[in-house]
Amino acid sequence: MTSLTINGKEYKVDxxxxxxxxxxxREQCGLTGTKFGCGIAQCxxxxxxxxxxxxxSCVTPAISAEGKNITTIEGIATDKNTLHIVQQAWxxxxxxxxxxxxxxxxxSAVTLLNENPSPSDEEIDAAMSGNICxxxxxxxxxxxxxxxxxTLQSSNPL
Amino acid sequence: MKKxxxxxxxxxGVLAGGTLVIGxxxxxxxxxxxxxxxxxxxxxxxxxxxxxxxxxxxxxxxxPHAEMGQGVHTALAMMLADEMDADWSNMKFQEAPADKEYAxxxxxxxxxxxxxxxxxxxxxxxxxxxxxxxxxxNFQITGGSASVRxxxxxxxxxxxxxxxxxxxxxxxxxxxxxxxxxxAQNSIIxxxxxxxxxxxxxxxxxxxxxxxPTQPKLKSPGEFTLMGTSQPRFDIPAKVTGEAQFxxxxxxxxxxxxxxxxxxxxxxxxxxVDTTVSSSQQGVKKIVNLGDAVAVIADGYWQAKTTLDALxxxxxxxxxxxxxxEEIMDRYRKAMxxxxxxxxxxxxxxxxxxxxxxxxxxILVEAEYQLPFxxxxxxxxxxxxxxxHDGKCELWCGSQNPLGVRAAAAELLEIDIDQVxxxxxxxxxxxxxxxxxxxxxxxxxxxxxVEYPVKLIxxxxxxxxxxxxxxxxxxxxxxxxxxxxxxxxxxxxxxxKHHPPEAxxxxxxxxxxxxxxxxxxxxxxxGNWRSVDHSTHGFLTExxxxxMAHAAKQDPxxxxxxxxxxxxxxxxxxxxxxxxxxxxxxxxxxWGRGIAIAQSFGSIVAEVAEVEVSIDGKVKxxxxxxxxxxxxxxxxxxxIAQMESGxxxxxxxxxxGEITIENGAVAQSxxxxxxxxxxxxxxxxxxxxxxSGNPPGGGGEPSTPVIAPAVTNAIFxxxxxxxxxxxxxKNDLRASIRQTT
Lengths: 158, 741
Description:
heterodimer; A: alpha+beta; Ubiquitin-like (UB roll); DNA polymerase, domain 1; 5-stranded mixed sheet; globular; B: alpha+beta; Aldehyde Oxidoreductase, domain 4; 3 domains
C-alpha cells in the first residue's frame, strides 16, 4: 500500500511501480475532475499540482508523489462552498464549452498566477500552450486569467 | 410523401402517485402520460412533454439534446421560459430520456420545412409520416446545428406558449374574469384590476383541465425578455469545479475497466491471439477477442492498457494492407478521369451550357485542389460503460444520438429496446464523432462476457486511428470569365457527396454551371465532421472565387459583392466584415488579408483573416474578424462562443490537420503527430452578429467552413502563393520560394 496526500486528505492506494498518478487519482481515489486526454503529456487535461508545481499526472508515477502534497481541481478552493479566484473568473467569462479540458486549464492558470500575478499576453501564452482546448476557447481562457489577475491586484494592493 | 399537418391532441389524466398530467402534445399523439413516469416525480405537474411545474413553482424544461458545450440546455430552456413568462431564476432543465417520445421530430421536420430535402442516409426509409419515421429511425440526434433552429423554434417556444395559455385560462375561470385582462410575469398570473395573483404552481392543477390551444400565440421579437439575452449557462459552474460528469467519469459500483485494440487496417480481422490470462498479469480479469478487435478487462485502465500493449496479436492481411495515402489519391483521380470519360459522373447542379460558354470566355481559370482525411480528436477519448445482466443492458456514455445507441444495443443483444437504458452524460466534445454507436457496441460485447459493469476506455491512439473521418478529396474547378472579368461559366468536378445536399452549391450569380461528382470506393470509414460537406466545399468555393477575382484583377471583397447583388443578407454580411476588418487598410510587410463567406445550416458567415508569413515560411494568424447573420441569436454570448470554437476547430484542420494512410492503417496516433491549435497559435477573434429577423440559423458549425479559405486567401495576399492543398503546413512558403512563384 502506498500513502498519498491529495487535497490534504490521506489515501491508501495500491500503486505498482509504473502506474501513473492520473489513474490512481481517478479510479482509486474517485476524484474524477482530473481528466485523461492523451496519456503522453501532450494535452494538459490531467494537470495536477505536486507541492504547488504543475505536473502531467498521466506520465507521473504515482509512487513518485508519495510524501508530497497533491492538489487536484477538487482541492484548489479553500472549502466546498467557495470558489478559487480563478474558478470564479472562469464562470464570469463563461469560459468553458464542453469543459473537459478546463480542470487542466484552471490548474495551469492557478500556478501561473501564483508565480506571476499579472502576466502579459505572451507570458499567458507561454504558460498555457501545453493545455489543449478542442473547443478553442483560448480567447476566453486568456480573458479569465486577466480577470483573475485583476481581482488578485485589487484584493492585494501593493 | 404525405404532407404533415400540425395538430395538437388533448388529454388529461392522473398517474399513479397522484401526479397530475396535462396531456398536450405539440406533435401528433398524446404522449404526456407516456413520458410522465420518465421525467416527473410525485407532486410535479407535467404540462406537456417539454415542461413540468413543481409545487415550489420551479419550472423545468425537458431538453431532448446532449450538452457538449454548445449551451443547448440553457438556450432551449430560455426559449421555453420566455414564451411561458416563467421566472428565469426559478427555471431548471433536465435532459430528456433516451426515449422514442423525444425522437427528433422537429429536427427532421426542419430538414423539410427549411426547403431542404432529407439527408440521403434517411431518405429511403421515410414512410410518409414524419413522426413514425423519426421514431422508427430512433433519431434523437444533437447535430446539424439544429437544436435552436428546429427543436427550439418548433417545440420549446410552442410548448412554453401553450402552457402559459392554459395557466391563464385556468386563472380566468377561477377568478371569473376575461382572460385578456390577465398578465403573466415571473411564473405568476395576475389580474391587475382586482389585484389578484396566483403562481403557476397554484394554477397548474386547474390548468390541467383546460383545453389546449392548438395554435398558441408566440411572442414577436419586441416582446422577448430572455431570447436575445446571454443568461449564464447552466452547465458552467460544475465545469470549473471538476464536478461535471462526463462519460469518462461514470462510476458504477463493482465496475471494472477495459481497453481495446482494433485491427489497424479497417476491415481486417484478428488472426490469432492468446486470451489466456496468466497469473503474472496482475489485476487482469479477462481477455476478449471480438473478432475485429481485442479487449482486456482489468481492475484499472492502466493494468488493462499495459497488458494489451504487451499482448501479441496477429491480424489478417486484407487487400488494403499495403495501401498508402498517395495510392488512395491516385485512385480517386483515376476514378474521376474514368467517370468523366465514360459519362458516369453524377450531376449535382446544371444550368445553361457550361461547355459552350467556356469557348466564349476571354479568361480561363483552372485549378485542382486536394484535401486530407481529418480525425475529430474530441478532448475526451471515446468511452462507454456497459452492464449486461438479466436480459437487460444499461449504458453510460456521452452521445449525440442516445436513442440510436439504445436501438443499436437492442439489435446487437437481440433484446427488446425497453430492456436497454442509456444514461447520457456530458460530452467532452462531439463534433459529429459522438453521433456514432461503434464504441457502445464494443462496450456491450465486452460486458456481455462478464457479469459486472465494464467501463471501456479508448486510448488516444485508438481514438485517432479508429475514428470515422472527414473525407480526403480531390476537386477540379474551372471558370470562364468575359473580357470584363465577370464569370460566364463555372464547372466543378468533386468526389464524395454526403450532406447537407446543398453544400456544393455556390452563392454567386454565374450563368452556365455544371457541378458533378464521383463516388470512388474507399476503405476508410467516413463520418460527420463538424460542418460535414461544407468543410470541404467552403474551402473549394471560396478559394476558387478568390482565384477568379485575381484573374479578373479585381478586389476579392468587391468581386464577391458584385456576384451576390441579389442576396441582401450576403451583401450585409460582406459589408459588415469589410467595415470591421478595415479591409483595404495597409498591413505590415509579409502580412496579408483574406476573405471568405458561406451559408451553412441557416447562418451566413464571412470571415477576414489577417496573416503573417515569416521569411522562413511560418504562418501566424493574428486576427480573425467574423460577421454572421444567424437570423436571430437566441443567446448572443453563447453564439459568439460557437463562432470562436468553429473558427479554432477549422483553423487547426487548415494549418496542420492531416490523417494519412500507411499500409492500410492510420499513420497518426496522438497530438504530437496530429497537432491541433494551441493558445500561442490562436488568433484574436472578433465576432459581429447581424440579427436580420430571419428564422434562427445554426451556431455549432457555420463558422468552420470559411476559416481555411480566409487564411489561405490571406497567405496568397501576403506571398502570392496559392494554397491548393491542405493542410497549410504541407506547403513551402519560404521567401525564397515566393520570388519564383
